[in-house]
Amino acid sequence: MRLPAVLSQLIAELAKFPAIGHKSAQKLAFASLDNNQQIAKNLSNLFASAIENLSYCLTCFALIENKYCAICEDKTRDRSRLCVVEDTQSIFLIEDSKAFNGLYHVLGGVISPIKGILPENLNINSLLSRLKDLDLEEIIIATNPNIEGDATAYYLSQQLQTSFDDLKVTKLSEGIPNEGYIEYADSLTLNDAFTKRTKIS
To answer: pTM of the prediction?
Structure first.
């Protein structure tokens, strides 16, 4: 039996989320529509509200409700260190680990030519411009330790070291397994990865 067109489209869109394959997307779609239509309606309303009410911090590009995030506005943060992450979720995970008390900058993804994501599609130029106004001692690149994350970290470190000679550029230690993701690391692992971070050569 052929799936209704709108259901096929819903499954296809759900499958675009990270870590959700076609089968998982199909299960989510059927579970929502067969037995939990109120949940589906609630989700639809919440997504619409989030799209309308959330925006990006004008400084660090974290997903927030106001013009500037609480971390950028917090004068008690260590303003000599800045951590570069792929997405806003990584900030919450790092904050939960209590491993870092500096500032953040969200790239908005990683370099992936196969997906059509080039350096100019990320928040790299804005980072370089931002650094001119900061008195930093260190930048910690906390991209995921996979091929795309490592390539992005290397590209970014080259740009930083070319533009800012005296700036220390480091990355998280190997506590997070290769091809792993920060979102799956527990607080102790993240804390250890920050404590044992290494300089990018």
So the answer is: 0.82
Segment 167-186, tens digit of pLDDT: 999 988 765 554 456 766 66
CA distance 78 to 101: 6
Break the chain into its structural domains and give their ranges: 5-53, 56-199
**Mean pLDDT within 107-130:** 94
Read off the pLDDT of residues 17-55 as tens digits, 9 standing for 90 and up.
Answer: 877 899 998 998 888 888 778 888 888 899 899 999 999
Q: Residues 5-53: name the CATH superfamily.
A: RecR Domain 1 (1.10.8.420)
Q: Average per-residue pLDDT in the chain? A: 88
> Among the CATH numbers 3.40.50.2000, 1.10.287.3510, 3.40.1360.10, 3.40.50.620, which is that of 56-199?
3.40.1360.10
